[in-house]
Specification:
This protein is α+β, with helices and mostly antiparallel strands. It starts with 5 loop residues before the first strand and ends with a helix. The protein is globular, with a radius of gyration of 17 Å. 26% of the residues lie in helices and 39% in strands. It has an eight-stranded antiparallel beta barrel with strand order 1-6-5-4-3-7-8-10, surrounded by five helices.
Length: 226
Amino acid sequence: MGNAHFRHEKKHYISKSDHIALRQRLRAVMSPDPHTGADGVYQVHSLYFDDWRDTALREKLEGTPRREKFRIRYYNDDLSYIKLEKKSKIRGLCQKESTVITEEECRLLMAGQPQQIEPGDRALLTEFCAKMNYRQLRARTCVVYQREAFCYGPGNVRVTVDYEIGGGSPMSFLEPGQPLLRAGNTLLLEVKYDSFLPEHIAGLVEMKDRSVTAFSKYACARTFIS
C-alpha cells in the first residue's frame, strides 16, 4: 500500500499560454515523473465508484470537509499494472492509499462481483470489497486525460498539468480508444506537497489572477460529461 499520510493539494484552472510558460520553468528545476514518455506526457485512465445515493459525488459538490472516494487507475493503455486507490480528504488535506490488482480482479470489481476476489494481505482491497457489499459501491464513470508531471524531492512536491479531459462509460474502462465526451478545453494545474512548499517552487507555480479551484474530474464526468 502507498504512503498513508496527508498532503496539501491546490488546483488552478490555467490557460494554454500559462501551460507553455510553466513547462519551460518547471523543466529547469524539477524532474519529470517516471511515468512520462519521451514527450514528457502520459495518459491516465481512472474508473470511479460510488454508492446508490451518489454519496461521493454529493459530498464533493457540497464541500463536505471529511470524505473519501475509490477509483481504479492505469496508465498509457498498459493493463499489466492496475491500481486500486482510495483518496481521503479532511479539511483541505488529502491522503491517497493504493494497492496493485490484476486485470481479472479489475473486471470482477467492474462487474460488481467482489465476493469472487481473494484480497489476501491487501488491506485496501479487503476494505473496498467489504464496502462494495454493504454500501453497494459500483462503477459509475471512467475519466481519461493527458498528464504532464514534475517532481521535486524537498517537500515531496509534485506538480501536474492535466488536459484533454474526457469521460465515458464505466464498462469501456479497459478498452483502448474508448469513446469519450470531452470537458471542453480545460487545463488543470495541481500542486501537491507534504509539510512545506519550497519558496522557489512556489514562485514557479504562482498563477497571478488564477484563483484556486475545487475542480473534480469525477464530479465533472458525472454532472457535465456522462
